[in-house]
Amino acid sequence: MNLGQWIGLIALVLSLYILWQIREVLLLMFAAVVLATTLNRLARRLQRFGIKRGIAVFLSVAIFLGLIVLFFFVVVPPFAVEFQALTKQVPQGLARFNTWLDYLKDRIPAQLTAYIPDLNSLIQQAQPFINRVLGNSLALVSGSLEVLLKTLLVLVLTGMFLADPAAYRKVFVRLFPSFYRRRVDGILDKCEVSLEGWVTGAFIAMSVVGLMSVIGLSILRVRSALALGVLAGFLNLIPNLGPTMSVVPAMAIALLDAPWKSVAVFILYFIIQQVESNFLTPIVMAHQVSLLPAVTLIAQLFFVTFFGFLGLFLALPLTVVAKIWVQEVLIKDVLDQWGDKSHRETEFVLVSDEPQTEKSAENSVDE
């Protein structure tokens, strides 16, 4: 390797190191981009009714802030009260389950008692994990100021991106060679549509799952139905893992009344997830980029490992955007054109008009 290649390699390694050190900031920026993209698409839809862009942006932000205020004033207070009761009822439910197991051991053959789990030993084995979770919860509460500052950062960045999206989009497009800028602009359009589809579909699925859970738990007369329903809807944002996490506290609370009610809660959640997976998701996310279940799970494990809890919630939009870039750039523009030099040169000539690229970028964002 000559001197220039060594310098390029060192610059690449330093760039990757810097990106790794600021990975949390980059994740917050991506969250702001997702939110700004959603509000910008909503503003465009309002503009179709003849509303000026400034008023449309104001209405979009007002709708978003209104939903937040509605959530905190209507949902959070009763949820906080019921969640406090939930923390007291879960240990009671476990104690009731342990009593029921002891009752069962006294009435079955001695040969079968060895196969019945001892809840006390399980709790003792899980005690280090519980202490670690409680420690993380206390750290989360003590770091509430940091969470607030990060939330404000996301909101400020969202406002900046939303105020003049064309300028930020133009800067990003100009990071690519001139012959490829129109192509990048088209890829950004696809990412924007996919992100809008994900946000809309996730919000609808979360609302429907939460509402069905509240209604079903209320019919079964399970305590803290509102808190459990909100928790089920919120955790539905996490595919695969969320539904499993939401059913455990609901079954524990149901054990306070009767064992059969806990089984009924499990059946209820199973039916709700089947309705959401087989009917709701295909309808509300028909235009979203499809992801294989294994890819979704691997993406969740990857992002939660490297980015923490926030990465778990943003795993799907990150995967959607990554899939579009891999499909459009790596597969279509590189692998599909491998060895076809004449076609590739023709394609580059067709997208080499830089002034038209910038104009297209401005029109596509300020529409």
Automatic annotation (TrEMBL):
<feature type="transmembrane region" description="Helical">
    <location>
        <begin position="152"/>
        <end position="172"/>
    </location>
</feature>
<feature type="transmembrane region" description="Helical">
    <location>
        <begin position="193"/>
        <end position="214"/>
    </location>
</feature>
<keyword id="KW-0472">Membrane</keyword>
<dbReference type="InterPro" id="IPR002549">
    <property type="entry name" value="AI-2E-like"/>
</dbReference>
<feature type="transmembrane region" description="Helical">
    <location>
        <begin position="292"/>
        <end position="316"/>
    </location>
</feature>
<keyword id="KW-1133">Transmembrane helix</keyword>
<dbReference type="Pfam" id="PF01594">
    <property type="entry name" value="AI-2E_transport"/>
</dbReference>
<keyword id="KW-0812">Transmembrane</keyword>
<protein>
    <submittedName>
        <fullName>AI-2E family transporter</fullName>
    </submittedName>
</protein>
<comment type="similarity">
    <text>Belongs to the autoinducer-2 exporter (AI-2E) (TC 2.A.86) family.</text>
</comment>
<feature type="transmembrane region" description="Helical">
    <location>
        <begin position="6"/>
        <end position="35"/>
    </location>
</feature>
<feature type="transmembrane region" description="Helical">
    <location>
        <begin position="55"/>
        <end position="76"/>
    </location>
</feature>
